[in-house]
Amino acid sequence: LWTILIQNKRFEGIRPTPNPKPNPDGSYTVKLTTIQWNVFQDNQKKPPVPVPAEPEKTSPGKEPEKTAPGREPEKTVLGKEPEKTVPGKEPQTGKEPDEPEKKPEEKPSDEITVTQEPRGKYVLQIPASLWTILIQNKRFEGIRPTPNPKPNPDGSYTVKLTTIQWNVFQDNQKKPPVPVPAEPEKTSPGKEPEKTVPGKEPQEPEKKPEEKPSDEITVTQEPRGKYVLQIPASLWTILIQNKRFEGIRPTPNPKPNPDGSY
């Protein structure tokens, strides 16, 4: 990967340009400041640099392949016309084959996108479906002023948080979701509410343990700057299958937690 990063100028604009010595295992270690990290991230969005294909070289002492004696290239036999093309299936000359239509990349609509500005503020791009859940579960509790942005044209919301506010927001994600009270059933006109039989008290519905969403990755940041990912078992399999840790050395290989997460 190091060769590919250098070839595609992924450290362009970073001064001084990283030039570390290889580690004993052949890998490289690079330290970047927050600003340099942002430049590096922006460089990943640039298209790769095309590498010119080298012409095939003939090995020394190896002459180009000759036609074997007595085996002449196939000629057209006299009196035998060349094979005709089936009507409606004539070969197209000078026309390149149609390239498959490229579909626009679909971004997941149920995830919060987090970026960090050079000055350190965190910018959250929140889909409309998740915004309602965040407000309902008081995920901005303790942040002053409470974020109250106007919706974007696509219905999503953009929120900017300082480092302290971001940490409060992250801590709020660990709290259990707020249960939504069920609306009381309305009595139809002319229909009296059902009376309780004497001596028989209504049974309270059995309380189920609060279920936390099992299909989300929880991300927190330690005081020293490391990001801690809490990954459900169902998502861990998908991440490994799709090589989402490719290029990370050493490759993450944690033991599962008691609840099966990683």
What's this model, at a glance?
This protein is an alpha+beta fold and 262 residues long.
Secondary structure: elements and pairs:
Layout: H1 2-7, H2 34-44, E1 113-116, E2 122-126, H3 128-136, E3 157-161, H4 163-173, E4 218-221, E5 227-230, H5 233-241
Antiparallel strand pairs: 1-2, 2-3, 4-5
Rg from alpha-carbon coordinates: 32 Å
Cα(first) to Cα(last) distance is 26 Å
Instruction: Supply the helix-strand structural class.
Output: alpha+beta
- Average pLDDT number: 77
Major sheet size, sense and barrel closure: 3 strands, antiparallel
User: Main sheet: which strands, in order across?
Assistant: 1-2-3
Basic shape:
elongated
What's the helical proportion of residues? 10-25%
Strand residues, percent: 5-15%
Number of helices: 5
What is the ordering of alpha helices and beta strands? HHEEHEHEEH
Identify low-pLDDT runs. none
Number of strands: 5
